[in-house]
Amino acid sequence: MNLKIDHKSPVPLHIQAENLLRELIKQPEYIEGKLLPNEIELAKRLAISRSTLRLAINKLVYEELLIRKKGIGTKVASSKFSSKSKNWLSFSQEMKNRGIEVKNFELHVSWVVPDKAVSKFFNVDEDQKLLKLERLRGKKDDPFVYFISYFHPRIGLNGDEDFKRPLYEILEADYHVVADLSQEELDAMAANKFIADKLEINIGDPILSRKRFVFDQSGKPIEYNLGYYRAESFTYTVESRRDY
């Protein structure tokens, strides 16, 4: 694509640059994940200053058309992953329903003594070790959520399960435990260093925190789940119906 600024035009340079960028990011290679040229190279090609170019880029970042990734560069933002409050299928199932293949970037299993909130939820001794499952997940080259799950010991999970399979499929098929009820808490927060490194964002960037409490058909707790989502990649939809 030919990127050319008209320096004789009455249209401000940063507006022209913005319009050119809007056309550039429609190109298939950028939609598919190719990084934009760096600011120095792009400013040179457009024959404008980096500060002028940055005004244009910042506008598209604000509109959530572009995202900056720490240590990587600027790329076209992926479509947001959306979850409905009435649809609490496992992450794998939600993504599968949208025709998106889930990728596990990291998967860690350990036995730990959790914090008091987790022990209280499961009504177990505070020194009781529980299975902890941590997963960095997303699509293709785009990790956007970090999950931490704890499970009640009565389920019988031993840590050798193939957690690349959908979680609730494992519980139901292998352990005859059916996830029946989910209660959730949502919170906006700033990313700490640990989460920022996992999600490839800056410390202090906004993220969505989702806490999920899962119960079986008899009302017994089975999973305590924490999810940390990159804000620009996730929308949570609440659907309500009025009772008459």
Automatic annotation (TrEMBL):
Domain of life: Bacteria
Protein's GO biological process: negative regulation of DNA-templated transcription
Alphabetical list of SMART domains matching this protein: HTH_GNTR, UTRA
GO molecular function, one term: DNA binding
HTH gntR-type domain segment(s): 11-79
Keywords: DNA-binding, Transcription, Transcription regulation
Pfam hit, one: GntR
CDD domains, per database record: WHTH_GntR
SUPFAM superfamilies: Chorismate lyase-like, Winged helix' DNA-binding domain
Protein name: GntR family transcriptional regulator
Originating organism: Sphingobacterium siyangense
